[in-house]
């Protein structure tokens, strides 16, 4: 049964070595993420998994490593070959910041259908009596003129709806996020959030939205459900 979940953005800019001179601009968001992951560490869970989107549906073991070389920093997160996609790499980095050691890293195909995501979430929740998840996902990358993608007037409301869902631990609202719209708005977190929705359905968790911002045109959220 799911007893706690944290949601954080998979942005490599959370890592000060990557952000460099801009690291201070994200200090508040980084602190909110650490608070969320701290909540998982304090939950007393029997098992902790990190969930994030990637190229396929697969599970990586607790020693799986990732790397940030693609972002100009020769930084390895964990030992061994870098096999984790970016969301799981940043998730592992956040866990290491607070001394949390996940049991597995769950990669979800970014194009997975909502029903597949919900089923996968339900399976994760059934893995133990007390399950905690760190879910890595960001919102639209089309917020404003400095966004990575062309600005889209639908992006702010899309992200605001996600923020409301995370604040209220509203699994039904997350289930309703449309894959086609999420893709149009360059939202990287849709499938991971819908895994969370499947895991949390019926668990009776309460939500706490710790951060919602878009400093570089991408929607970033930090939340804790418990």
Could you characterize the architecture of this molecule?
The chain is an alpha/beta fold. The protein has one domain (2-225): 3-Layer(aba) Sandwich (Protocatechuate 4,5-dioxygenase, Chain B). Helices cover 35% and strands 21% of the residues. The chain is built from eight helices and nine strands. The chain has helices at 16-19, 27-41, 86-98, 114-125, 155-167, 171-175, 179-184, 190-200; strands spanning 2-8, 47-54, 58-60, 66-67, 76-77, 104-109, 131-136, 207-213, 220-225. Strands 3-6-2-7-1-9-8 form a seven-stranded mixed β-sheet, sandwiched between helices. Strands 4-5 form a two-stranded antiparallel ribbon. β4 (66-67) and β5 form a beta hairpin. α2 packs across α3. The N and C termini lie close together (12 Å). The model has no long low-confidence stretch (mean pLDDT 96).
Topology, please?
Elements: E1 2-8, H1 16-19, H2 27-41, E2 47-54, E3 58-60, E4 66-67, E5 76-77, H3 86-98, E6 104-109, H4 114-125, E7 131-136, H5 155-167, H6 171-175, H7 179-184, H8 190-200, E8 207-213, E9 220-225
Parallel strand pairs: 1-7, 2-6, 2-7
Antiparallel strand pairs: 1-9, 3-6, 4-5, 8-9
Helix pairs in contact: 2-3, 4-8
Protein name: Aromatic ring-opening dioxygenase LigA
Dominant shape = globular
Number of strands: 9
CATH third-tier fold name: Protocatechuate 4,5-dioxygenase, Chain B
The structure class reads: alpha/beta
> What is the radius of gyration?
16 Å
CATH class: Alpha Beta
Q: Domains counted in the coordinates: how many?
A: 1
Instruction: Give the low-pLDDT segments.
Output: none
Widest sheet: strand ordering: 3-6-2-7-1-9-8
CATH homologous superfamily identity:
LigB-like
The name of the CATH architecture is 3-Layer(aba) Sandwich
Number of helices: 8
Percent of sequence in beta strands: 15-25%
| Oligomeric status | single chain
């Amino acid at each position: 049964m799911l007893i706690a979940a944290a949601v954080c953005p998979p942005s490599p800019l959370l890592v000060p070595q990557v952000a460099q001179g801009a690291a201070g601009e994200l200090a508040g968001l980084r602190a909110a993420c650490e608070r969320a992951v701290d909540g998982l560490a304090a939950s007393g869970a029997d098992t902790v998994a990190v969930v994030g989107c990637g190229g396929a549906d697969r599970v990586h073991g607790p020693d799986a490593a990732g790397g940030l070389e693609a972002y100009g920093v020769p930084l390895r997160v964990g030992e061994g070959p870098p096999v984790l996609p970016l969301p799981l790499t940043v998730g592992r980095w956040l866990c290491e910041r607070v001394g949390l050691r996940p049991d597995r890293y769950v990669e979800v195909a970014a194009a997975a259908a909502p029903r597949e995501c919900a089923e996968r979430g339900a399976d994760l929740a059934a893995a133990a009596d007390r399950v905690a998840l760190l879910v890595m996902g960001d919102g639209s990358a089309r917020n404003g003129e400095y966004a990575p993608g062309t600005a889209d007037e639908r992006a702010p409301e899309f992200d605001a709806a996600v923020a409301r869902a995370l604040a209220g631990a509203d699994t039904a609202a997350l289930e309703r996020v449309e894959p086609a719209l999420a893709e149009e708005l360059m939202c990287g977190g849709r499938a991971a959030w819908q895994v969370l929705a499947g895991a949390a359905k019926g668990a009776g968790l309460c939500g706490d939205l710790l951060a919602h911002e878009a400093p570089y045109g991408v929607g970033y959220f930090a939340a804790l459900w418990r």
